[in-house]
């Protein structure tokens, strides 16, 4: 195997965290900002690009980092290595409520395609790159744009999602239509396309957008019940009144809140 063999434990239900157990000299790479805690024997190091590119010279590191920028991620990642004696643990946390999905890439032909911000961490040796959408319509209207993330290698990788996760195994020729924001990941054998919703009333007044994502088997698909964009939209929809001094729900509590803020109205 090219990737380090790591052990893991997912803790929690809705606000999950991921505990990675490392043997001496084993490493895991993670997105910046996902770190939660670690044992004394683990050393943290900021690296340029992903873990696989570290042995490919400066140009290899630069190419790896450039790919990450195209997916909207930082140029840098963080590597955690066990330099201590015996097993050591490092724990990561997802940035919003949802689920952490463990993926053994060897079970999926060494490659999984996921939405741009889904990656959380992976065993050192797993490559985090970009996957271009070759179909014009999919890139323009698919919700994820022309560029998605791809995870390649023969080790464990972990992605996070918002809400509840549903896993579907599609047979050859089986088609699944999904809201474009609900796609978390799919295997490389799945064909990703878009389809027009159809119907004037559905398009103008349906509230579900103009296009579906269409995934055709064979292959495995991971689907999230609550796209983060939908959650953020609901928060922003209710935020103006809460942050601009508007009236809260409940007259007594609302008045008390106004007094505490020093409102004169």
Output the keywords:
single chain; 265 residues; alpha+beta; Double-stranded beta-helix; six-stranded antiparallel β-sheet; 19 strands
Rg, nearest Å: 21 Å
CATH topology of the domain at 7-162: Double-stranded beta-helix
Which strand-content bin applies to the residues?
35-45%
* Helical segment count: 5
- CATH class of the domain at 7-162 equals Alpha Beta
Please trace the helix and strand order, writing H or E for each element.
EEEEEHEEEEEEHEEEEEEHEEHH
Average pLDDT level: 78
Which geometry do the CA atoms define? globular
CATH superfamily of the domain at 7-162: Mitochondrial biogenesis AIM24
Write the layout of secondary structure elements.
Layout: E1 7-11, E2 17-22, E3 27-30, E4 35-38, E5 42-48, H1 57-70, E6 76-82, E7 88-93, E8 98-104, E9 111-114, E10 119-123, E11 127-132, H2 136-141, E12 147-152, E13 156-162, E14 165-170, E15 175-178, E16 183-187, E17 191-196, H3 200-205, E18 211-216, E19 219-224, H4 228-243, H5 251-261
Antiparallel strand pairs: 1-2, 2-7, 3-6, 3-10, 4-7, 5-6, 8-13, 9-12, 9-16, 10-13, 11-12, 14-19, 15-18, 16-19, 17-18
